[in-house]
Amino acid sequence: MSRLDSFIRRMKAQRACLDWAAQAIADLPGPVFELGLGNGRTYDHLREILPGRDIYVFEQVIKAHPNCIPPDDRLFLGDAVEQLPIARDRLGEGAALVHTDLGTGDDAANRRLAARLAAPLAGALRPGGIVLANIEIPVDRWTRLPEPEGVQKDRYFIYRDDG
Amino acid sequence: MSRLDSFIRRMKAQRACLDWAAQAIADLPGPVFELGLGNGRTYDHLREILPGRDIYVFEQVIKAHPNCIPPDDRLFLGDAVEQLPIARDRLGEGAALVHTDLGTGDDAANRRLAARLAAPLAGALRPGGIVLANIEIPVDRWTRLPEPEGVQKDRYFIYRDDG
């Protein structure tokens, strides 16, 4: 399998997980948090599959396509670890879905990131809420859910707050 | 269709065109030229689908994944417009396939690029050779071929040197 094959498989897996998550929160109120805007492709996808849902983006520096930049009042600029509690307080409610695509190919860095993100993420999620992450994020009261059909195991990590 | 959907479709179209081209040159000797290494994903794919074929890469600055960087003697560093005639002379034969992924989202810049590339590309291709390009490159003696099944029209431009 070439890197092109692998890349296409990863993008399709990401889309399958996002589509699954949109269905999973259909009956759960609350905003959606996108951690890491990047080029804005998954933000654009979330906008499309979750019309009418408030989507807030957490990013350090905006580098997305101009059509994929959220309005200023939907943007939390800075370190997500610091911004998540600020967002939770300002919005007055927890997120129904958090999608985080912040991990990189560096396993040790991913573990450090997961350790920093776990508590702020757990605090920002409402009961029954879903986390879709490209890295493993261990939180005691979260249940890890199986990947949707067709998605390679451990390509994404899906959790539900059952606390 | 979200930008994520559109991106996946583009990557799949690119792979379908590369796979088609590999079949199309099965009985034609000669090297393969990859114009623009980028992250190296299509180079890796070409290596995989064309085992035993010499693949030469043209790039200004190498930024690819370490596993996707060609050996020094398969690399032409600099402006492809200048390097293509040098490659043609050094190798002593024309390419069976040229894949060029140099275009951007800027139509005017793409037309200027196509105008600069047309003659050096035409000179570097052997009779019967195939050009797969992400921009339109008009050359009199080339015939534009239809896209493979499932590929959106004008997503890629496929030419054969029938001169």
Q: In percent, how helical is the residue content of chain A? A: 25-40%
Q: Specify the CATH class of chain A.
A: Alpha Beta
Lateral strand order in the biggest sheet of chain A: 3-2-1-4-5-7-6
Secondary structure tally: strands of chain A: 7
Description:
2 copies of one chain form a homodimer. Chain A is of the alpha/beta class and 163 residues long. Chain A has a single domain (3-161), classed as Rossmann fold, CATH 3.40.50. Helices cover 37% and strands 22% of the residues of chain A. Chain A is built from 4 helices and 7 strands; from the N terminus they run αβαββαβαβββ. Chain A has helices at residues 3-24, 41-49, 80-91, 107-124; strands spanning 32-35, 55-59, 75-77, 95-100, 125-133, 142-145, 157-161. In chain A, strands 3-2-1-4-5-7-6 form a 7-stranded mixed β-sheet, sandwiched between helices. The radius of gyration of chain A is 15 Å and the shape is globular. Chain A starts with a helix and ends with a strand. The interface between A and B is medium-sized, with 24 and 24 residues.
